[in-house]
Specification:
Layout lengths: L1 H5 L8 H15 L8 H9 L4 E2 L2 E2 L4 H15 L6 H15 L2 E3 L3 H12 L5 H10 L1 E3 L4
Helix pairs in contact: 2-5, 3-4, 4-5, 4-7
Length: 139
C-alpha cells in the first residue's frame, strides 16, 4: 500500500478548512472558539509539505498525516480543542487521499492522549496510522 500511495498527488488541507474543522468540533463537543496563535497554525499546516533539497521530508502518506497531527498537538494553535483538531485533520487528510482510519474509539483516545502527553514520537504516530488505516475502495 505504501508504494502505491507514494506516487499519489497529495491533497493537502488549507488553513481555511482546518479553521472550519475547529469551529465544527467546538460547536459539536463544546469548548472555546478561537485561534491562540496564527503563526503556530501555519507552521503546523506547513509540516507535511516540507522538503530538503527538493526531496519531501515526509514521503509517505502516513508520515505526512503524522506531521499534521504531531505539529498541531505540539503547537497548540487553538485556544481549545487542539487534540480534537489534530485527530480530525489527520483523519480528513487521509480520507481526501483515499485512506480511512480503522481503529476503535478507545485505541484512538489512548493514542492521542499519548501524543498530547509527549509519549509518542512523530515516527511512532506514523506507524500507528499505517497499522490503523486502509485504502478506500474506488467506485
Amino acid at each position: 500500500m505504501e508504494t502505491q500511495q507514494e506516487k499519489f498527488d497529495w491533497i493537502y488541507l488549507t488553513k481555511r478548512q482546518v479553521l472550519a474543522i475547529h469551529d465544527v468540533l467546538i460547536e459539536k463537543y463544546g469548548g472555546i472558539k478561537g485561534l491562540r496563535d496564527e503563526g503556530l497554525l501555519e507552521s503546523a499546516l506547513a509540516q507535511p509539505r516540507q522538503s530538503f533539497f527538493g526531496e519531501d521530508l515526509y514521503k509517505a502518506i502516513f508520515s505526512k498525516a503524522a506531521a499534521y497531527g504531531f505539529s498541531l498537538s505540539e503547537n497548540q494553535p487553538f485556544i481549545d480543542g487542539n487534540k480534537r483538531v489534530a485527530v480530525s485533520v489527520m483523519a480528513t487528510f487521509l480520507m481526501v487521499n483515499r485512506l480511512r482510519m480503522t481503529c476503535d474509539q478507545e485505541n484512538l483516545y489512548k493514542t492521542i492522549m499519548k501524543l498530547a502527553n509527549k509519549q509518542l514520537t512523530r515516527e511512532e504516530l506514523a506507524r500507528w496510522l499505517k497499522k490503523n488505516s486502509k485504502e478506500m475502495k474506488s467506485g
